[in-house]
Amino acid sequence: MRGTAAVPCCGGAESALSDQSMKARITVTLKSGILDPQGKAIEGALKSLGVAGVASVRQGKVFDIEVEGADRGRAEAALKEAAEKLLANTVIENYRVEVLG
Amino acid sequence: MKSAVLVFPGINRERDMARTLRLVSGSEPAMVWHAETALPAGTDLVVVPGGFSYGDYLRCGAIAARAPIMDAVRAHAARGGLVLGVCNGFQILCEAGLLPGVLMRNAGLKFICKDVYLRVERSDTPFTRGYNAGQVIRVPVAHGEGNYTADEATIARLEDEGRVAFRYVAPDGDLDPSWNVNGATHAIAGILNEDRNVLGLMPHPENHVEDALGPTDGRGLFVGLTQYFAKAA
């Protein structure tokens, strides 16, 4: 029972915090030339479903991240660190960081 | 031989590994939880066992590779200490940067659980001294992501420096794409680091060491390691 409505002070603090956060997205994709058997399987399934015009499919990952604060530059630096340290394996993957605001 | 077997959430082959280490070396390995920051004093060999650490979330081995204990493993390797990674352990060592390259989804997309034939490429390492170079051994694999790959320069370096320890081959020892079960580049099943004190391999030698269970070709790896440390002591 950790109701938020019953504790107005905390509810207020939470909404103040969320005012100062930014939404961001990190997209991780396989580098070109890296074999993507999962993408190939999905491509095959789309073709067998009769979806017209599918030439090829590559599977990737999307991370939606909420970043504290309102400093865009700092957020971008932190997200780049997250991608480099964990979210992407740069041996086989590329990543793109977007701060959506 | 004082060995330490790392334990991560989701790992499930640590007890097979511990049993084999005990049976072959005669001494009980220490089981070391991932949140520890130090290895037991005097550890000779660190073993990163197989399984599914963190449910293979994100990428196989990615989260375990960033666990607190891994800094101690890196320091142990930097001092020349031996590190063996099997299956998920191999994936973890690659993700931790202790070995180059990456293990991708099997080329045939299926999880493969069966015996394979490996050619031991060299016998002059602490891990392979129990075998002869060129010897073919039969051991099991159990993985969905064992398709070893790296950029061309890395593969060329591994080959030039003789750092491929094991390859998937036909029973007669010949390279044959149909016996390269997961489609690995150059049929690579196991590799060594630059100093040859870190070995990662996808197959499970620890599962073929007891007569009661059939083939015992995996024994050589652990016998060799035990003799290596007995000699050093």
Helix and strand pattern of chain B: EHEEHEHEEEEHEEEH
The CATH architecture of chain B would be 3-Layer(aba) Sandwich
Low-confidence stretches of chain A: 1-16
Largest sheet of chain A: 3 strands, antiparallel
Anisotropy-based shape of chain A: elongated
Strand adjacency order, main sheet of chain B = 2-1-3-4-11-10-9-6-7
Count of distinct strands of chain A: 3
Overall domain count of chain A: 1
* Number of individual domains of chain B: 1
Q: Percent range for helical residues of chain B?
A: 10-25%
Integer-rounded radius of gyration of chain A: 20 Å
Spans where pLDDT lies below 50 across 5 or more residues of chain B? none
The N- and C-terminal alpha carbons of chain A lie at a distance of 33 Å
The assigned structural class of chain B equals alpha/beta
The SS-based structural class of chain A is alpha+beta
The CATH superfamily of chain A is Phosphoribosylformylglycinamidine synthase subunit PurS
Structural key phrases:
heterodimer, A: Mth169, Chain: A, 3 helices, disordered N terminus, B: 233 residues, alpha/beta, Rossmann fold, nine-stranded mixed β-sheet, two-stranded antiparallel sheet, 11 strands
Question: What is the secondary structure topology, with strand pairs?
Answer:
The complex is a heterodimer of chains A (101) and B (233).
Chain A: H1 8-19, E1 21-30, H2 37-48, E2 61-68, H3 72-87, E3 93-99
Antiparallel strand pairs in A: 1-2, 1-3
Chain B: E1 3-7, H1 14-25, E2 30-33, E3 45-48, H2 69-78, E4 82-86, H3 88-95, E5 102-104, E6 112-120, E7 136-143, E8 147-149, H4 152-160, E9 164-168, E10 188-192, E11 198-201, H5 219-232
Parallel strand pairs in B: 1-2, 1-3, 3-4, 4-11
Antiparallel strand pairs in B: 5-8, 6-7, 6-9, 9-10, 10-11
Helix pairs in contact in B: 1-5
